[in-house]
Task: inverse folding
């Protein structure tokens, strides 16, 4: 179900906070440089927070604990993923989404699939675990759009031609962490094309979903067109999944785009779709 595009909802799986953690969650503590507070799994550097001293240590501890719990959950539910699972950033998202003003490309209130401009995935999947920890019980509201294949078919006719020179230049200037594959270029195009097309945003069928406080949900955000339209105080853990460990690789965006484009797409480990 997950690899087929389902959102797995655990309606009674809260992430319980200590009193000190509740205090820093209520304080939010954004420094204005980003919309979220995030923790790097390698450097353990916390970005986006104005908290200092004991409060900052409490926030870091909260993010580390959530990362550990999310990893245990994913490996417990999907043991086959363990060999191909990479833990990426952990984030705390305190800002009310409905009130946030940003550019169209960064506007997550518009339906989109996830793709990273500076971090090429080269076929790896983007799996995310979310938990609503709002102390006041405010739900987090999403819109969930059509299937990935229908989404891709909508925008692929206007896909620009490949530009190998551009991907080489971005890598050598240090603007991307590695070279974008054709898969990465297409995924970024789909992300931007959908967010740019306001007529499609208004007219495409989508389901409104509420994720209540105390619930957890898991989704491949590179596959499920989604928009976060309201809510605050969510924790999120990102994982990268090697396509070699997927149960149904034919349902992944890598395979679907390869079929729709009539192109063999190669992953970072030489797998093809």
Result:
């Amino acid at each position: 179900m997950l690899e087929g595009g389902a959102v797995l909802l655990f309606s009674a799986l809260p992430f319980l906070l200590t009193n000190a953690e509740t205090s820093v969650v209520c304080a939010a503590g954004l420094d204005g440089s980003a919309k979220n507070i995030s923790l790097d799994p390698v450097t353990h550097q916390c970005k986006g927070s104005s908290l200092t001293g004991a409060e900052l240590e409490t926030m870091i501890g909260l993010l580390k604990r959530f990362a550990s719990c999310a990893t245990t959950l994913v490996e417990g539910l999907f043991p086959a993923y363990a060999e191909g699972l990479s833990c990426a950033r952990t984030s705390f998202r305190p800002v009310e989404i409905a009130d946030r003003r940003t550019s169209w490309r960064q506007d997550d209130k518009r339906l989109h699939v996830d793709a990273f401009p500076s971090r090429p995935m080269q076929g790896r999947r983007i799996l995310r675990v979310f938990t609503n920890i709002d102390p006041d019980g405010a739900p987090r509201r999403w819109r969930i759009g059509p299937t990935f294949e229908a989404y891709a078919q909508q925008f692929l006719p206007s896909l620009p031609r490949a530009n190998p020179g551009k991907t080489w230049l971005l890598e050598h200037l240090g603007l991307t962490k590695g070279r974008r594959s054709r898969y990465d270029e297409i995924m970024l195009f789909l992300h931007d094309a959908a967010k740019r097309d306001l007529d499609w945003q208004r007219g495409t069928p989508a389901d409104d979903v509420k994720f209540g406080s105390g619930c957890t949900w898991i989704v491949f955000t590179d596959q499920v067109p989604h928009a976060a339209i309201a809510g605050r105080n969510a924790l999120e853990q990102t994982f990268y999944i090697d396509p070699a460990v997927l149960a149904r690789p034919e349902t992944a965006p890598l395979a679907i785009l390869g079929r729709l484009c009539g192109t063999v797409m190669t992953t970072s480990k030489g797998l093809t779709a």
Observations:
- Residues 53-77 form the longest helix (25 residues).
- The first strand starts at residue 8 and ends at 10.
- The chain is about 30% helix and 20% strand.
